[in-house]
Amino acid sequence: MKKRIFIAIQYLEIGGAERALIGLLSSLDYTKYEVDLFVYRHSGEFMKFIPDEVNLLPEIKKYTTLSRPIKELVKEGYIDIAIGRVLAHLKNKIFNKRHQTKDSIAIYQYVASYTTPFMPSFYKRGEYDLAISFLIPHNIVREKVLAKQYWAWIHTDYSYVDIDVNYELPVWSAYNKIISISEDVTKGFLSKFPALAPKITIIENILSENFVKEQAEEKVDLSFLPSDSIKFCTVARFSYPKAIDRAVYICKELIDKGLNIYWYIIGYGSDETMIREKIKETQMEKRFVLIGKKENPYPYIKATDFYIQPSRYEGKAVTVREAQILEKPVVITNYPTAKSQLNDGIDGVIVPDSIEGATDGIEAFLKDKDKQNRIIAYLKAHHYGNEFETKKIDKLLNE
User: Is cis: bond before 137, omega within 30 of 0?
Assistant: First the structure.
């Protein structure tokens, strides 16, 4: 008899965690599992990649209120959710002021805590063998789904963000297992929640080499790429952790050093206006190019010379491994989890986590053709797909 699994995520916009979920769904053995997927809001370019074997549950309008403008909710009569979200923002403002931080992710937990009581449950669907909450906040799956086991995923390096530990601890504690995507992500999480160490298991983000390579063959217009230049590519949300704002200055420094650089950024996000201002300030309009959102970034990565991840912090960047699958020399900054991402000098390069340090590190790598060739040869000889990670799910479910 097949085991029943419930999986929930807010939406399937372009992002690392969302891509990782598609990787997981594409690798499960559907002779063993019957999977119900609940996407709070049926939006995002990755919706079309949901495998046919997955039962996509209908959208429930009240769940879409968690990520829509509060004014819309009031007009539509969702006063309970609107009030909950306003209270959450007020509480988050107090938290940020008290802890003197601007990079808090406590807001997600506050919103969940104030709104989950008003959400409809999934009890009528019966008891599942496993219920998975794939992305924070994790209240809803634990409180609204009946299951024999509950698992919650970690995708963030918690050592680098501010959270309300006392508020989140009871939520994480209510899960049977906490799934981390790397050892460094585990360390970061346990720096905030040491008591939860017995619950943690590592299951890496699942990637299919075949899928990445097939998608990279899609025909797209790449005529804007100059042939007589060094081409960089980065795929990321325009947000503080990804440090695209900092990359603008790194690009300028490299060009000032006489390097013929063109840096292409695939992505979108709330920091776009600020990034464009920095591009204008540094006169990098022709050199640092925001391509925008692309549901298939792989042809662009394939066409580039180097893949650069300039992040301030990461859980484990899916795009780095995708670039490695496409045999591209990868450069990442030395964010806290960098050493779990690649082996410096073997299958990529780690440069200092600063504008000056990253600039010097990238310049040195660009001039070291032997190192580039060694890394490319290593990538060609090794596999970076890891569909076998799903076997861990089998093992954990049968313990």
Answer: yes
Instruction: Name the residue type at position 260.
Output: N
Q: Could you give the strand order of the β-sheet that contains 230-235, starting from the edge strand earlier in sequence?
A: 288-292, 261-266, 230-235, 306-309, 330-333, 349-351
What's the CATH number for 3-207+388-397? 3.40.50.2000
Residues paired with residue 38 on neighbouring β-strands, in sequence order: 8
Taking only the tens place, the pLDDT of each residue in 136-177 is 889 999 999 999 999 999 988 888 788 889 889 999 999 999
Tell me the DSSP string of 314-348: -S--HHHHHHHHTT--EEEE--TTHHHH--BTTTB
**Structural domain 210-381, CATH architecture:** 3-Layer(aba) Sandwich (3.40)
Contact 135, 155 (CB under 8 A): yes
Q: Structural domain boundaries of the chain?
A: 3-207+388-397, 210-381
pTM: 0.80
Task: Measure the CA angle with vertex 309, ends 304 and 314; round to 5°.
Answer: 150
Coil, helix or strand for 353? coil
* C-alpha–C-alpha distance, residues 42 and 70, integer Å: 19
